[in-house]
Amino acid sequence: MSDSVHNGPMKPAHYVNGVFTTTGSAFPLLSPVDGSQVGTVPEAPRDVVGAAVQAARSALAGPWGRTSVEERCSFLRRIADGIEARFDEFVDAEVADTGKPRELAATVDIPRAIGNFRAYADLAYGRPERAYPTTVPGWSGSGQALNYTVRRPLGVVAIISPWNLPLLLLTWKVAPALAAGNAVVAKPSEETPSTATLLAEVIGEAGLPAGAFNLVHGHGANAAGEYLTSHPGVDAIAFTGASATGAAIMRSAADHVTAVSFELGGKNPALVFADADLAEAVEGTVRSSFTHSGQICLCTERVYVQRPVFEEFIAALAERARALKDYGPMISAEHRDKVLSYYRLAVEEGATVVAGGGVPTFGDERDGGFYAEPTVLTGLPESARTVREEIFGPVCHVAPFDDEDEAVRLANDSRYGLAATVWTTDLSRAHRVAPRIEAGIVWVNCWNLRDLRTPFGGVKASGIGREGGEYSLDFFSEPVNVCVKI
Ligand code: NAD
To answer: Any residues with Cβ below 6 Å from ligand 1, and which?
Structure first.
């Protein structure tokens, strides 16, 4: 498959205090497309993680800690330009690590990473402080004072990111963290270390003072990730990944009362009303369930369709799912096995498999890769594990509903609350239903249409806090009050 081929070995390395190093044992990096080894990843031992935290701390005490917001914003713009100048290299690295279709990396992952740095340069520069003119009757002198806010960085920020949108989700945190003046120690997923390493190169070339951005590679539990999140020198943790990992990180952060921002898992519903443009709803659901083979936290895994159009919808969705050909693999053999175990569980739980349900055969090198078929299920009760647990694969379960209240109740009957999609041509219904859904973002007649200024995050087990625009800058800084007596 020509669009997922990698060029030469990937060479991930740690980046500590402005220097690249591959200290530590190493583990193989496998291509999800054909299972071949594409590189070797160094596993950061505890002392390398400690050195990265120390370098970040020293950067805050040095020139980086004295930069103005203008200087930091121009660093961000230079980083964006640096990624753009090496665009194809970034695309190649993202494709090699994830196996995602080249077009996806070239139109979403890498452009959005560039966009993240530019957006936060604009947002941080345009951000006002607040002033509170104060009068205290009876106070000596004029009785007046001027109170104002000054936003201070939190300090050393640990950033832990997942494998599904490696550079996009990493930069979504790195850009606002640096814009707000923090020093960063980042740990990307062990499955996808390559674009993070290229980013470190670009950041070095942009002239960021040594130690302001550090990168360590390795696994999570009992390894680099946990060494970082439990380190007493870390002031805040920004994490994107699974809800269970968020719980583990919260436990290790508790000892030092470290601030956390969490973007976690989802089991996202789509509601298709009988008055929807059905062709649009089907196409939208194909995108929302099967883009990146369902490995986006915002993907739809539960579809509820109003009964009069249920049969028509499911037939059309199944036909489109069966026709999908140019899709990428699961990130790893382990994740493919997890997705397939849910396909088997669905059948054991009594599902009808309307499309997919197995492993595709291509007749080429992809048969050695980690693929799962786009799958449409129906017929399960709401209590089924397949309907309740996040699968994170190319699969959705479709169930009928009768009225608006039932649709909202079904959508909200989940421990998760990340994203939802509503398909209707009734404007009043859209405005009635959207705010009733327990989710951080509700799309009406679209999916994954993003404005980087808007709040992004989940409710319930899907996260703590909000990212995006001023919301990220709020997390990565703390307003302190200066009071001047007049
Ligand atoms: P994961 O939780 O397994 O791993 C994410 C990161 O955490 C990796 O870098 C990993 O090494 C690290 N990690 C794992 N255990 C750790 C520990 N004990 N201490 C410190 N670090 C640890 O998630 P994943 O499999 O990489 O990604 C898929 C999950 O991420 C899905 O649940 C998906 O919904 C979620 N996700 C959420 C969003 C969002 O914005 N809400 C976006 C993308 C993915």
So the answer is: 160-164, 169, 187, 189-190, 219-221, 225-226, 229, 240-242, 245, 248-249, 263-266, 297, 390, 392, 418, 458, 463
pLDDT at 345: 98
Point out the catalytic residue in the list 94, 191, 226, 297: 297
Name the residue with the closest Cα to ligand 1, atom 31: 242
Mutation pick for ligand 1 pocket among 98, 245, 466 (CB with most ligand atoms within 8 Å): 245
CB of 269 closer than 8 Å to CB of 246: no
The answer to whether residues 298 and 462 touch, using CB atoms and an 8 Å cutoff, is no
CATH number attached to the domain at 4-264+463-485: 3.40.605.10
Contact 189, 41 (CB under 8 A): no
Rounded Cα distance, 436 and 271, in Å: 12
pLDDT at 8: 58
Q: Which residues pair with 37 in a beta bridge?
A: 30
Query: Is 263 noted as a catalytic residue in this protein?
Result: yes
Identify the CATH homologous superfamily for domain 268-451: Aldehyde Dehydrogenase; Chain A, domain 2 (3.40.309.10)
Same fold flag, 4-264+463-485 and 268-451: no
483 assigned to active site: no
Query: Residue of the nearest CA to atom 34 in ligand 1?
Result: 265
| Residues in the chain, total | 486
- Beta-sheet strand order (sheet of 352-355): 352-355, 375-378, 395-401, 300-306, 268-272, 419-423, 441-444
Domain positions in the chain are 4-264+463-485, 268-451
Cα(15)–Cα(10) distance, integer angstroms: 15
Give the confidence band of 139 by pLDDT, cuts at 50, 70, 90. confident
Q: What pLDDT digit, counting tens, does each position of 76-90 carry?
A: 999 999 999 999 999
**Distance in Å, CA 188 to ligand 1 centroid:** 9
What DSSP letter does each residue of 398-452 carry, written as one string? Answer: EEEE-SHHHHHHHHH-SSEESEEEEE-S-HHHHHHHGGGS-SSEEEES-SS---T
pTM above 0.85, yes or no: yes
Which candidate, 348, 296, 290, places its Cα nearest to that of 318?
290
